[in-house]
Amino acid sequence: MGQEEEDTVVVEEVKEQEEEEIGTSSSWNQRKQTQIVQLSEKLIHGDLESQIQAARDIRKLVRKSSSSSSPSSSSSVKTRSKLAAAGVIQPLVFMLVSPNMDAREASLLALLNLAVRNERNKVKIVTAGAIPPLVELLKFQNSSIRELATAAILTLSAAAPNKHTIVASGAAPLLVQVLSSGSVQGKVDAVTALHNLSTCPENSTAILDAKAVLPLINLLKECKKYSKFAEKTTALLEILSNSEEGRIAISNSDGGILTLVETVEDGSLVSTEHAVGALLSLCQSCRDKYRKLILNEGAIPGLLRLTVEGTAEARERAHTLLDLLRDSPQEKGLASSVLERIVYDIAARVDGADKAAETAKRLLQDMVQRSMEHSLSCIQQRAASCTPSDIPSS
User: Fold this and answer.
1) How many CB atoms lie within 10 A of CB 149?
2) Confidence band (pLDDT; 50, 70, 90) for 334?
3) Residue 282 above 50 pLDDT?
4) Is residue 369 over pLDDT 80?
């Protein structure tokens, strides 16, 4: 067989394979569309058991579309859209108020899967009236149901048109309760949902009225300062610090300012930026009131390090806060920017201009480390000198 004949055979085989794949894909899509229509019919016209099973099958269908390696594996978004177009959302929302707990859980899971990665479905679910029954589910003692309802509100809160409806429904105080008594995942979802809602300025008042600051501070105390959880928590605290009520709540919380200072020292790039932002908001609102409170918690070493290692925004905020924390804001001689200039000049004389920036950074880091070690040594000395006779009797 010649080369041209071989090439012709290969091309024909490829065409046959492509036609077979197209046929398989078309057949698979037809079966899926038939299944979607059947599920919709069961939800709308079926008895309770049929509705529960249909809700469970919807969840399975969406999850299978997301993980499938079939030719339509990229169509999970289309599957969600086709299910919504088939009219499954409204009957699923009706099931949320069913006296049957299996019906509530099945519909909740189905709606959650329909809303993920589909903004239009998020809005349709809220428009269909899902928020009031979800808020009622947040009141349940059943931790599993309450956690699912929290996850659902988190998902729906990501769509801007839904934020006002969710806050107006009274969800904020119940999400704050989850911060205090929920599971670890429930707390993560509640913080994220509250953060989503707080991005609308008018919603911050409702979150403050729900007394969110204290549980947020307590959660930040307990978690790793560089975790994603800390990033969401500090982001929310920074937003709340933009109001006088929020600033008062942070400063009145036991260890509130100290926790933000510790986050500046130990947090990720994101959480340090938000933590210094909250501290700066406090100090800018009333320097006379907050300056000493921040200084007493040993903020200087962490802020100095942030001027070197933080994001561009964090470095700028740290510079501004350091200036506010000085004894006299009018005296420029001790400004952190001047200190950096002095260090840079010394570095340039020692290592030359081409290496001055790197040397200056290393010198500043060393100064920060020595300052932190000195502060720790002073604390240890005070603790060692404190004898039982120094402690006042009650």
Assistant:
1) 29
2) very low
3) yes
4) no
What would the mean pLDDT of 79-91 be, rounded to a whole number? 95
Say how far apart CA 200 and CA 204 lie, in whole Å: 7
Contact 291, 333 (CB under 8 A): no
Q: What's the token pair of residue 271? A: 């959480």
Supply the pLDDT for residue 228: 92
pLDDT tens per residue, range 221-244: 999 999 999 999 999 999 999 999
Tokens of residue 108, six digits? 């909740």
The helix, strand and coil proportions of the chain, stated in percent and rounded to the nearest 5, come to 80, 0, 20
User: Is 213 within 8 Å of 260 (Cβ atoms)?
Assistant: no
Contacts of 49 (CB under 8 A, 6+ apart): none
- Non-local (6+) Cβ contacts of 154 within 8 A are 189, 190, 192, 193, 196
Question: Dihedral, CA atoms, 353, 357, 360, 366, nearest 10 degrees?
Answer: -140
d(CA 275, CA 82): 44
Tokens of 170: 């009274």
